[in-house]
Description:
This protein is of the alpha+beta class and 304 residues long. Helix content is 30%, strand content 31%. It has a single domain (2-56, 72-193, 220-301), classed as Phosphatase 2c, domain 1.
Amino acid sequence: MILATAPFQEKAMLENQRDNSLQDVVVRVDTSGLSDRGLRRPGNEDHFLIAQIDRSWRTLQTSMPADAFQSSVTDSVTVQIVADGMGGAVGGEVASRTAIGAFVDIVLRTPNLILRLDKQSTQDVLTRMAARFELMKQALEEVVRRDPTLTGMGTTMTLALNFRADLLVAHVGDSRAYLFRKGHLERLTRDQTMVQSLLERGAISPEEMASHPLRHVLVGILGTKGKPIDVELRFIGLEDGDLVLLCSDGLTEMVPETAIADALAAASTAEAACQQLVDLAISRGGYDNVTAVVNRYRIAPLAG
């Protein structure tokens, strides 16, 4: 099932979006990730991935005039994933590793990758992403069939892909994505937890969430149970200077959003931001695995 979260505004986005084959901007991404098992856990059930998907054309020799066509073109999509596994013993580590590995395999086996967006391909990307989460679920189920001791394992997954200046965020569980823009931190994902559901129904107050005994109970997970996955999908337009943070709850449980915003504002590079965020979580107790992936976007007009 696809949940289009506000302020997704798919209709407006599709109507206003330009054909990216003519998009006159160049996007550069400073990206880095860091994961730590923390102070109390014996192992690390978090995993992250940063990757780049490219399609390129480079003319080596031709008799045609230089202005007849573009002699060198590269389309790129950057991918960042954070997955926080669960399942006891080694189950959590296996779940997060398997899910990310399955995503890579799915992408590599896709013959017609979409690396530029227009109205039709935008909808195709949403449909494909929901289908890919189901395929990752099937990969987890296959692992359990081979090793029944892993029954019940699962993982969160928060994933970001930027198609030039358009960012897609896909999300299951309670790992989070944030946008830091002009000094303001905005959460891009909704925690799929029992306490979030209770809050939305008015059963508890925001102040009760931090200490509620059900705050770690997930109602959405990429796992091995039979029910469909609730994948939240959201597109946003990126601006020059934007920072996007993906993180596990080992960060957000220990570090308030005000401190996260301060760390992102102070860091000069994505690598420095990741280090500072993980250090903050460890210094405040670090009882869980903690993972942070930071992307800093520089967007400028394309010369010529």
